[in-house]
Design goal:
It contains nine helices and no strands. The protein is mostly helical. The protein is elongated, with a radius of gyration of 21 Å.
């Protein structure tokens, strides 16, 4: 079975809807374009159209991604950084996005996650193991060791 072939106009409409639904990175848009079997000659003109019509913006995506993952998923800066890197965001935009996270809110989030995990491990008899499990949990959420070691 052959993949469906879309016209350039159909691809543009699909990508406009795709980008309007939520913020997208250039990498995500290029991946979607590849899945729609667009011709290589149309690639540049489609991306130019989307950029000119403000359907995507790398900086806006990075800021939205960082704040969203922090507030909704309770991710730390390390995990957000890796996520942005996987989306092929430049290093300067990654650092700008990470600096947009309020430091007081960040520390408060880490403290709350620490306390919840600590309480959930109250059945753990060994105090050292309880502390290690709590720290490992926060590290897996992407919080830096320097930040979370102060909580203990």
């Amino acid at each position: 079975m052959f993949p469906k072939k879309y016209s350039k106009e159909q691809i543009i409409l699909k990508l406009e809807a795709y980008c309007a639904y939520q913020e997208r990175s250039l990498f995500e848009i290029e991946t979607k374009l590849a899945s729609l079997n667009s011709s290589p000659s149309d690639l540049t003109s489609i991306l130019t159209h989307l950029k000119e019509c403000n359907f995507f913006n790398q900086e806006r995506f990075a800021l939205t991604y960082a704040i969203g993952k922090f507030r909704n998923n309770k991710w730390g800066k390390q995990k957000i950084k890796v996520g942005l890197f996987q989306k092929k965001i430049s290093a300067d935009l990654i650092s700008k996005a990470l600096s947009s996270i309020d430091i007081i809110e960040y520390k408060s989030m880490a403290q709350n996650l620490y306390e919840k995990k600590w309480l959930s491990l109250k059945s753990e008899k060994n105090e050292f193991e309880r502390k290690q499990k709590t720290l490992r949990y926060l590290k897996s959420k992407g919080f830096e060791y320097d930040e979370i070691s102060d909580l203990c």
